User: Fold AAA+ ATPase domain-containing protein from Streptomyces avermitilis.
Amino acid sequence: MGFARTCSVALVGVEGVVVEVQAGLEPGVAAFTLVGLPDKSLTESKDRVRSAVVNSGGEWPQKKLTVGLSPASVPKGGSGFDLAVACAVLGAAERIDPRVLADIVMIGELGLDGRVRPVRGVLPAVLAAADAGYEQVVVPECAAAEASLVPGVSVLGVRSLRQLVAVLTDEPFPEEDPDEQGRPDPLLAGLRMPGTGAATGIHSVGAAPLDLGHDLADVVGQLSARTAVEVAAAGGHHLFLEGPPGAGKTMLAERLPTVLPRLGRDESLEVTAVHSVAGLLPGGKPLVDAAPYCAPHHSATMQALVGGGQGVARPGAVSLAHRGVLFLDEAPEFSGQALDALRQPLESGHVVIARSAGVVRFPARFLMVLAANPCPCGRLSQRDTLCECPPATIRRYQARLSGPLLDRVDLRVEVEPVTRAELTVRGARGESTRAVADRVRAARERSATRLTGTPWRTNSEVPGRELRSHWQAVPGAMEEAERGLERGVLSARGLDRVLRVAWTVADLSGHDRPDAGDVALALQLRTGVPRGVPMMIGASA
Assistant:
């Protein structure tokens, strides 16, 4: 009886579980049995593996063959086990020394001709292998750069099963067929999932902030909205922009990612892992190091926003915007069920999707920007009476954004229409993205220094209890906000969020602690009610 084993990885969301792939040969009628809780796509690997081995010059064993995937209690799916199954079978048939295979993790799909095709989720799979103590990983050649992001792991990228067998048996390495050079590479098609391109509203993944041509200097006027964008970026606060069409809400939202700092190493790996599972990694740049930006259409379903779907749960827009910006334009047009589903990830920073086969968890710590018109026609304004919407229609439209959802939004700004003077004056440009980004970076460094030794890095992440007990404002500075709590203008959560925003304003202004002016500006940004506070911070003046 022949026996061999090697390893692969089963992905559950963006977390991996190392799976031992065992192959056993015994006398009997030729048959191929795959056990270990495989799904439909994994069950089909029996035919792919058999054809790949034969077309790679190998001999398929004419015995009873059993391939087991252990642990058997973990659901397994996808085609990424093909390479490990093929090598385990060849090891059991003594074509490869079984001892060579035991400590190698193999990830890849096999074509019928023996070529190794890429699969999604290589980075989280290799991270799981490294955490389990494995040091050797075999992946498709075009995914080797992504796998190499994990330190301490030796990565071998192969283009075909024939090449891998040659490496494992110390035979001459077969070169690529010269006739295939210069042709379009169909193997790269496996790196992207259909329907996840730019049309879905996912932009600027991995791009440098100014590479997209989005500069805050293009925004004319809008001092209060620009200030809110700067505060949102500095503290990671959610933002609600309300104003008529053409006032600049979308322009401001698109420029918010450009003032966010570059992602750190750990953050980059988190974001890259999510986009790898979703099949959205940019070509030629395996590491996402800039804040992502996701702007789904208002017809998006709840599953499209928070994740899920039939079969294997997929990351939604909130996870694709992890460590970046989620922009919901025309927010009242989204379904109420989809919007209310955002409340849990806004608080916890992750999404938990429960299915009968198990529970999947995706990271979802994003900065949300909501944009809305003041009424269905968009012409409701204090300056004129062009709006013809009945009062009841306006109330129903504005009530589509529920109170519990808006209570989790720290900043609320009314975006006024741009005046003729602001728009036509020559040379009318605001501060550039680079200038604002420098202040945002300095403010985040102050908050990170203050929060050293804690699990939090931005003011928006600090729980209210910790904020009130360890990082209080100047004595007496919170009196007006506390009176708002007594009058019912603010909830207890709202009071904590005012204090968080006040700390961000203080960080931007260079203050050691929030004073009365910082709290007043935070209260104005929180409630959207003018309080006579200048809408300017530090160098923004």
